[in-house]
TrEMBL record:
Coiled coil segments of this chain: none
Keyword Signal in annotation: yes
Organism whose genome encodes this protein: Erythrobacter westpacificensis
Name of the protein this chain belongs to: Deacetylase PdaC domain-containing protein
Signal sequence bounds: 1-23
Annotated stretches, region: Disordered: 19-53
Amino acid sequence: MIRRFTLLAVPTALIACNPGEQAADPQPTTAPETPQPPATPEGTPAPLGGARTVSERTDTYLFEYSYPQAAGDTEGLAGWLDSRLEQERQELAGRAAQGREEARDNGFPFNTYSSETAWEVVADLPGWLSLSADQSFYYGGAHPNYSFDTIVWDKEEGRSVEPIAFFTSAAALDEVLGPQLCEALNAEREKRRGEPVDADSDDSFDACVKPDEGNLLLGSTNGQGFNRIGIQIAPYLAGPYAEGSYEFTFPVTAELLEVVREEYRGAFTAP
């Protein structure tokens, strides 16, 4: 079951016809999509159960946010994600209002701001739900940008746990996984750039990236325990925007299991 909410507003083209006038923000109107239910009023928690998709367009911004059924069916997590939804929507609305005001004051055209967050399941285990999010946003400037997010939900305790918190320390994880990550990153850089990375380079785009500096994901291929570590590296961290993002997956080994905190080792499996 998907609960979809769509809010529409007066097209910006109607405002662009009068660049010298400041139009008032229109009140969004609900556009029901039968047989989907109408939008939940802003600030009102959505009912538990099912996936959720929200899309809201006004004359200053486009906001989209979604999460899957597994998250919507998990008590506590759905509320956590709904809270994040409201925070991101309010941040976007504030940024867009300020951006339009600054554009008007400086005589520049205003381009609609946008924010999109799409959560997906990485691993659904008996006691844990691991999620990742693709995020894209535009706050003015030459082009939009994008990034990643992650969360692991403890089903028994009803709380979120940062993936890095499963390990004894970021330094310990880097000691075990860092060399593999650096080797894989440089191999992929070489493919994209057409030349190997200079080992003596002091360019930040040639430097190794530590596991906790990227977006750390806990994954599973057996549905019983975490046995894969994923790392997503957003643009500008390991290379220029045009080079895109980097994504790698590594198996959980006995060596890596040694740097998992004792209280979480039962959630992992290794050869």
